[in-house]
């Protein structure tokens, strides 16, 4: 326990001596704050932090899973639509060829 108290005092000195600028968007600032926060956590505090963050992480993962399922469903719908369109295009091409085949004899008879 005494070793941790020394670390806390040392971290406080280091933090005061070389505190980063007040840029709240800086990843380095967030990382330093998190590292310092970890140094000061007690076992109970650490357990609370893990429970809170694992709960948030679980919610995030579940949301991402639902989003992925929705995207997969939408992708399947789009693939079905593409397949249907391809069939329609093929049918139209066959119809065009048939129309040309019927038109050729008609024009030769007419001439």
Structural write-up:
This protein has 111 residues and is mostly helical. The chain has a domain at 35-110. Helices cover 88% and strands 0% of the residues. It has 3 helices and no strands. The protein has helices at residues 2-17, 27-40, 43-110. Residues 9-24 have low confidence and may be disordered.
What labels describe this entry?
3 helices, about 0% strand, mainly alpha, about 110 residues, about 90% helix, coiled coil
Beta strand count: 0
What is the N-to-C order of secondary-structure elements (H for helix, E for strand)?
HHH
Annotation field: number of helices: 3
Helix percent reads over 70%
User: How would you sum up the global shape?
Assistant: rod-shaped
Structural class: mainly alpha
What is the arithmetic mean of pLDDT? 77
Low-confidence segments: 9-24
Fraction in beta strands? under 5%
Q: Main sheet?
A: none
**How big is the Rg?**
34 Å
What order do the helices and strands come in, and which of them pair?
Blueprint: H1 2-17, H2 27-40, H3 43-110
């Amino acid at each position: 326990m005494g070793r941790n108290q020394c670390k806390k005092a040392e971290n406080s000195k280091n933090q005061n001596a070389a505190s980063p600028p007040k840029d709240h968007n800086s990843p380095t600032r967030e990382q330093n704050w998190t590292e310092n926060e970890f140094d000061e956590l007690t076992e109970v505090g650490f357990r609370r932090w893990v429970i809170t963050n694992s709960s948030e992480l679980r919610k995030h993962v579940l949301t991402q899973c639902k989003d992925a399922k929705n995207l997969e469903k939408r992708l399947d719908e789009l693939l079905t639509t593409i397949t249907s369109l391809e069939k329609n295009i093929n049918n139209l091409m066959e119809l065009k060829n048939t129309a040309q085949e019927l038109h050729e004899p008609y024009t030769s008879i007419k001439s």
